[in-house]
Amino acid sequence: MNDLTGIGIGRGIAHGPVARMAAPPEPPQDVPSQLSPEEESQRVAEAVQAVAEELAARGEQAGGQAQDVLEAQAMMAQDPALADAVAERTQAGKTGEWAVFEAFDEFRQTMAALGGYLGERAADLADVAQRVIARLRGLPAPGVPEPGHPFILVAEDLAPADTALLDLEKVLALVTIEGGPTSHTAILAREKAITAVVGVAAAEELTGGEDVIVDAAAGTVTVAPTQEQIDDAEQRIDQRAAVQAAPLSPGALTDGTEVPLLANLGSPKGAAEAVELGAEGVGLFRTEFLFLSSDEAPTVEEQTESYTELLQAFPGKKVVVRALDAGADKPLSFLTNTEEENPALGLRGLRALLTDEQVLDDQLTALANAQEATEADLWVMAPMVSTVEEAQRFSELAHAKGLKTAGVMVEVPSSALLAENILGEADFASIGTNDLTQYTMAADRMLGSVSHLQDPWHPAVLRLIREVGAAGQSTGKPVGVCGEAAADPLLAVVLVGLGVNTLSMAPAALSDVRTELTLHSAEKARAVAQAALGASSAAEARKAALAASQS
Ligand code: PEP
Ligand code: MG
């Protein structure tokens, strides 16, 4: 057996031959231009314009989050500072190709050095540069191979423009050598339910035509599998297809215990698809995603419009909207202090909102307006709450606006440990396992080198979740989970066993979680949770839960 390992995205499994992404075009040479600086500038301007238009058109065709990503990439191409850096070089007698190559690379390096969200966008900028250079040379844009049969796509990393428009009839799975759990490849693969394993360093060795099995749940790529492994994979592929074709039902355990399954959304545009996939409401609407590229705080009017559009898609259903979570991996220039050395430990989330209550006031006003205009059951919550006073302040502000259900995210160990006191002030709690894991394990969620510590299966994280579940039960207040942990089917069972009432996830994950829940009773879920809690590592917890779930 020859397994390459990486980070699996989703639960899919696929079997087929490898096709490798074409190598990027040769970098240009620094030779003097035969044209005048004005002619070179003109060529570059036309090429940039054409590439930006092509990216925007691809975005329109793809829709959803892909559209936002591609539009952001189109804007990057047209950044005036970048245009100045290119012009400086053409003025100095360089060719357009060289000027673009050098200037874009300088910006890319600056972004990569910043790390975090911007660091992961550096690959997007490299892709824009390659597209502009290809256009200047009159070559087609670099892209996905077309071997004429279904294949497993292996690439260094994928540009959003390629991921967004993958032909899912042909691409059975994605394997990338680079990329972490929050790279665009991962986000878009999750959204489009493409089987993917990212960050597989050893995939460098894979060659076109090689037979592989990609197992996202296990995070593995099996090279040259045996017939037995192929038969097992094919059987699992058929089982998944059968489950996905079954009629949708509300989330529930075998004994009928209801576990509503909700969607995580970043834009009202994803609402229709979430409903189609069986979302019973929204458990986390990330409002900051609407304003990541804004320099100024959004107006009440513009927010009212977005929230109304979202709420209209869920009449009579619960929709949990989170107040702006600015800072660290999601900087908002109008709220975030970029000078901080440790932004994840700085003025982020509710802390940032409470330093300038006007932004929060406007957001709550817009939410109250949207509530007035629609039939949805609107709940609001605060991100990154770490004290009881913060919970109390947020509830007070939200209730004063007529928003009747105001809760908090539990993402910091202090909130989990004081969950009962926090729930004394808030109407509900929603556990953000991504940040809770980051802060419990002291491991930056954006950093590949500590990704082995960012595992919500770690018993230390599970014990904190147990505190919150128990506090929900003693206070009679609802407790949900809206971090990535809810999208892992077996971990979802553990969460329910720890006292969690609702699970919210990327809509593509709903089907696998729904199926797993139907296999266990509440009593069994508690036993599975107990088994995981008793472990001393994440791997052991996974193993113990699996064994308990099958006993
Ligand atoms: C979390 O931290 O788990 C969460 C859901 O919030 P975000 O991923 O947006 O920080
Ligand atoms: Mg969070």
TrEMBL record:
The active site is at H184 (tele-phosphohistidine intermediate), C482 (proton donor). Keywords: Cytoplasm, Kinase, Magnesium, Metal-binding, Phosphotransferase system, Sugar transport, Transferase, Transport. The lineage of its organism: Bacteria, Bacillati, Actinomycetota, Actinomycetes, Micrococcales. Residues 5-121 form the Phosphotransferase system enzyme I N-terminal domain. General (non sugar-specific) component of the phosphoenolpyruvate-dependent sugar phosphotransferase system (sugar PTS). This major carbohydrate active-transport system catalyzes the phosphorylation of incoming sugar substrates concomitantly with their translocation across the cell membrane. Enzyme I transfers the phosphoryl group from phosphoenolpyruvate (PEP) to the phosphoryl carrier protein (HPr). Its main location: cytoplasm. Its EC number is 2.7.3.9. One of its GO terms (cellular component) is cytoplasm. NCBIfam families: PTS_I_fam. Residues 150-219 form the PEP-utilising enzyme mobile domain. Belongs to the PEP-utilizing enzyme family. It catalyses: L-histidyl-[protein] + phosphoenolpyruvate = N(pros)-phospho-L-histidyl-[protein] + pyruvate. Mg(2+) binds at E411, D435. Residues 15-41 are annotated as: Disordered. Signal peptide: none annotated. It is found in: Cytoplasm. InterPro entries: PEP-util_enz_mobile_dom, PEP-utilizing_PTS_enzyme, PEP_util_AS, PEP_util_C, Phosphohistidine_dom_sf, PTS_EI, PTS_EI-like, PTS_EIN. Its cofactor is Mg(2+). One of its GO terms (biological process) is phosphoenolpyruvate-dependent sugar phosphotransferase system. GO terms for molecular function: kinase activity; metal ion binding; phosphoenolpyruvate-protein phosphotransferase activity. It holds the Pfam family PEP-utilizers. This is Phosphoenolpyruvate-protein phosphotransferase. Phosphoenolpyruvate binds at R286, R322, N434, D435, R445. Residues 249-517 form the PEP-utilising enzyme C-terminal domain.
